[in-house]
Amino acid sequence: MTRSVWLKADDAVGDWETRKRRITAGLEAGVDWVLVDEADVETVRELGDVNVAAFRTDADVHVMEAEEDDGEPAALADAYIVGKDGEGDATVELPSDFSGSADLTTLRRGDDHTNGSYVRILSKDYEAFAEEAARDGDYTIVIGEDWTIIPLENLIARIGEETDLIAGVTTAEEAKTAFETLELGSDGVLLDSDDPDEIRKTVEVRDEAERESLDLVWAEVTEVERTGMADRVCVDTGTIMNHDEGMLVGSMARGLFFVHAETAKSPYVASRPFRVNAGAVHAYARTPDGGTVYLSELESGDEVQLIDTNGNTREAIVGRVKIEKRPMFRISADYEGDRVTTLLQNAETIKVHTREGRTAVTDLEPGDEMLIYYEDTARHFGEAVEESIIEK
């Protein structure tokens, strides 16, 4: 599931300058969507690159026919949402028979771009109204009044697969709860806050909710052999890594070795905390989607997965890949009777993680235990497959 953060920035939050400050903070933090009034779509597009959703407040106006004062076509939003100044926010009384709902009629029309609803959960009737709207909408935004977790649990259970369920929140802590409810969580949150720190923290919560946590295991080193020269790959990312972070790389997809980033100071070279000296061109590296990629295929703009020694992961953008001929070690390790290997440069600046902590490959000896990620599966073009493949 891909989580998203929406930022509420319609006229209900203040004048344009107030809304602009909020939107700018959202752009800087990395929100996915901004929800505004239809009249603000073009202005928001001028502020930066972000998905724009707009409230539809006039169900009789066809989106494709909208024009500016000079006769030019108005800027279109990426999504149009019904419910503001309508039945969804209780401005108009909720009909006893939903077949007579103006909001739902607009949502169900197939000749415009309206593809989402906004519903305040004021009672069980509004919860039922949100369920009905979810049948026809790509997005269903639900706002709790004196919010309890039960209505969100009900909606996740009943409509979680029919729509992208977006839960209204006012803090990053509420966003965390929304993403964790019933383990599945909401698909996104609509944040109503002017606080740049709260906006940034909410985006961080989104990132954490999407990240894998991997179980790293200890494998026993059986051999460290000088192998001569090979084409070695340094992966320079656009991210400053922490002291306990690195990448998973290896010659065999089922057993990837944890290799530290070059965050440690050395008497020989300066630290480069954005870099992982990852191994030879043939080796695999793990990607954020759980796949693998050959180190030789990586290039600027690609994504790689970073991981720390506890198995916590995050993503990083590759800024540069350096391939140079260097002397190498072949490292072999045993995990529960299975032998896995990789090639790493013969240099004291390349570190792996053993029971003793951060250890240079030049100090690695048979009998040491080092961290690897073991996955008893075969790979075809980087994807896990149920197939018998022998790697040795």
From TrEMBL:
<dbReference type="GO" id="GO:0102042">
    <property type="term" value="F:dehydroquinate synthase activity"/>
</dbReference>
<feature type="domain" description="3-dehydroquinate synthase N-terminal">
    <location>
        <begin position="3"/>
        <end position="205"/>
    </location>
</feature>
<dbReference type="GO" id="GO:0009073">
    <property type="term" value="P:aromatic amino acid family biosynthetic process"/>
</dbReference>
<comment type="function">
    <text>Catalyzes the oxidative deamination and cyclization of 2-amino-3,7-dideoxy-D-threo-hept-6-ulosonic acid (ADH) to yield 3-dehydroquinate (DHQ), which is fed into the canonical shikimic pathway of aromatic amino acid biosynthesis.</text>
</comment>
<dbReference type="InterPro" id="IPR030960">
    <property type="entry name" value="DHQS/DOIS_N"/>
</dbReference>
<protein>
    <recommendedName>
        <fullName>3-dehydroquinate synthase</fullName>
        <ecNumber>1.4.1.24</ecNumber>
    </recommendedName>
</protein>
<keyword id="KW-0560">Oxidoreductase</keyword>
<dbReference type="Pfam" id="PF01959">
    <property type="entry name" value="DHQS"/>
</dbReference>
<dbReference type="Pfam" id="PF26558">
    <property type="entry name" value="DHQS_2nd"/>
</dbReference>
<dbReference type="InterPro" id="IPR056179">
    <property type="entry name" value="DHQS_C"/>
</dbReference>
<dbReference type="GO" id="GO:0008652">
    <property type="term" value="P:amino acid biosynthetic process"/>
</dbReference>
<comment type="similarity">
    <text>Belongs to the archaeal-type DHQ synthase family.</text>
</comment>
<feature type="domain" description="3-dehydroquinate synthase C-terminal">
    <location>
        <begin position="219"/>
        <end position="392"/>
    </location>
</feature>
<keyword id="KW-0028">Amino-acid biosynthesis</keyword>
<dbReference type="InterPro" id="IPR002812">
    <property type="entry name" value="DHQS"/>
</dbReference>
<keyword id="KW-0520">NAD</keyword>
<dbReference type="GO" id="GO:0051287">
    <property type="term" value="F:NAD binding"/>
</dbReference>
<keyword id="KW-0057">Aromatic amino acid biosynthesis</keyword>
